[in-house]
C-alpha cells in the first residue's frame, strides 16, 4: 500500500529565513469585537445550540510577528473553531500578502459562540459571516501596522480548574459504559503556559495563554426559555482580565490538547445515577455566569504567577513556520491509513504546534515531553491545511480510551500504539525544518 510517510518531506515547508544580523523580533497586536448584533439572532453554535442573547462579548485577536521583513500572524477566534479556511484564511492571505502557511489560524473552542457559517435557513447568518470576516481583516491590518521591536518570554504555573471527562459507568448488569463525566483520576495536565511579548521598555504588547480545557462552563446555559446566551467562556474571561490589567495589550487564550478535558463543573453536568449507575445529564436551572467568573478569576491569578516565573525574555527570536502531513497505520485491516497534519509557528525557542482535531490530553503531553524544543505548546482547533489531503479531525483518543471502548472512540482511525509516536515524529520533523 502506498503510504503518506514521505509526504512530510515532499510537502512544501514554508520557512521564513531572517537575513543575517536581523534577528530582532518585532510584534504588533490587535483585536476586534465579533459579537453578533441583536437583529441577527438567533444564531446557532456547537451541537446546533440556539443562541438568543449575549452574556459577554466575543472577539477575534491577531498577533503579528516579524524579524523586520515579511510578517507572520497568529489569529485566534473566540469560537468553537476557526471559520472556514478556504474563504477566511485564503482571503486573509490575499488581503495581507502573507502566505497561508505563515498564519497560525485557530479558535478557543468556546461552545457558546455562534458558528461562522452562512445558512440559508438562518437569516442572520450571512451578515454575521460578512461582519466577522471584515473584523478579522481589520484586526490583522492594525496588528501589522503596530509592529515594533519587542521581546518574548515564557513562564509556567499550574491551574486546577480542569478535569478528565472520560468516565466509565458501571451499569446494573455489571457492564461498563464509557461516556462523558467527572473523572478526577484520569490523565489531566494542570500546566498553564503563558507567552509574553513586550516592547523594549517592558510594556506588554500581547500574551498567549495555553491551557488544556474545553470551554464548556457556559455550554447549554439556560439564558431564558428561548435558548442559550453567547459567551467567550473562561478563555474570554481570562483574556479580558489580562487586557484590563495591562492596558493596550492583547491576550490570546488557546486550548491545549483538551479532547478529554472539561471544567470541573459546567452549566451542563454529568453524574452516575445512584440506583442504576447509568450516566445522568443534568442542567442548571439558569445561566450560571458565576461559574465562568470563578474559573476566570482563578486562572487569571495563575497567569500572574506564570508571568512572575518567566524563564527568559529576549528580542533575539527568529520567526519561522511549517505545516506538514504524515500518516498513521489504520485501526483495522482494510481501513485506509489515517492522515494527520500539524501546523507549527516557531518564535525562537518556543514552538506553537497545532492540530485541527481534538487530541486527548495524554497525546499532547507526550508530544510536549518528547519535543526537540523544551518550550512546546500543543493546541487543538488549529487549521493545518486548506486544500489537498485533509488530515483527520474530530476527537483523537488516546490508546487507553480506545482499548477500553471509551467515550468518543467509535470513530477510531489509527492503530493502537501509533498515535503518540506518529504525531511526535511529525512535530519534530517540522521543528527540524525550521533550523535550516
Radius of gyration: 21 Å
- Structural class comes to alpha+beta
- Largest sheet report: 8 strands, mixed
Order of helices and strands: HEEEEEHEHEEEEEEHEEEEHEEEEHEEHH
Number of domains: 2
Gap between N and C termini, in Å?
Answer: 32 Å
What are the defining features of this structure?
single chain; 22 strands; alpha+beta; four-stranded mixed β-sheet; 8 helices; globular; 436 residues; eight-stranded mixed β-sheet
Topology:
Elements: H1 7-10, E1 26-33, E2 43-44, E3 50-54, E4 59-66, E5 72-77, H2 85-96, E6 103-107, H3 125-145, E7 148-158, E8 162-170, E9 176-183, E10 191-199, E11 204-211, E12 228-230, H4 233-245, E13 250-255, E14 261-263, E15 268-272, E16 279-283, H5 289-308, E17 319-328, E18 338-347, E19 350-354, E20 358-359, H6 361-369, E21 375-379, E22 395-396, H7 399-403, H8 419-433
Parallel strand pairs: 3-12, 5-6, 11-13, 19-21, 20-22
Antiparallel strand pairs: 1-4, 1-7, 2-3, 4-5, 7-10, 8-9, 8-14, 10-11, 15-16, 17-18, 18-19
Helix pairs in contact: 2-3, 4-5, 6-8
